[in-house]
Amino acid sequence: ISDAGLDTIFREARTLRQWQDKPVSPALLMALSDLMRLGPTETNITPARFHFVVSKEAKARLEPLLDEGNRRQTMTAPATAIVGYDLNFARTLSKLAPHSADSLSKELATNPEKAKLMAMRSAGLQGGYFMLAARALGLDCGPMSGFDRDGVDREFFAGTAIKSYFLCNLGYGDRNGLRPSAAR
Prior knowledge:
Elements: H1 3-11, H2 26-36, E1 48-53, H3 56-62, H4 68-76, E2 79-86, H5 93-96, H6 101-110, H7 112-136, E3 140-144, H8 149-157, E4 162-171
Antiparallel strand pairs: 1-2, 2-4, 3-4
Helix pairs in contact: 1-7, 2-7
């Protein structure tokens, strides 16, 4: 990777809270999903689920579930991804981890806490890959955790075993008024 690429993904990348009025195309969101899914996870499981909130109607459903400090930045972002984890990820083991599908499926069926831990841990990894892929494709990210998880789960994942983990605004950031990067 070139220095310019490393700058894009890490050195110059920032959490953005202000956005240009420029849409993110469905094709770019699909390219982002296709790229991020290639990152390694525990036993090759892929429990992360990404629900893109783009339309005005979907944003209106999300808005009351956001902490006050996150409303403006989310409502003006061209897209918001709800990053979640699927507690029923084991149903895909025969395809994604055929070498251990039978034994792991049996173990997870009797140990829901282990299944939840695996789902959260690997979904967290996938969420990180998601943001790196977004940056590599020219998008800015604004990850956040300030929202009503139970409300988001009811509103966007009702009738599923998917649980929300964090939100990530996506778009082309407006860097005007951006504070200097904090220490790492």
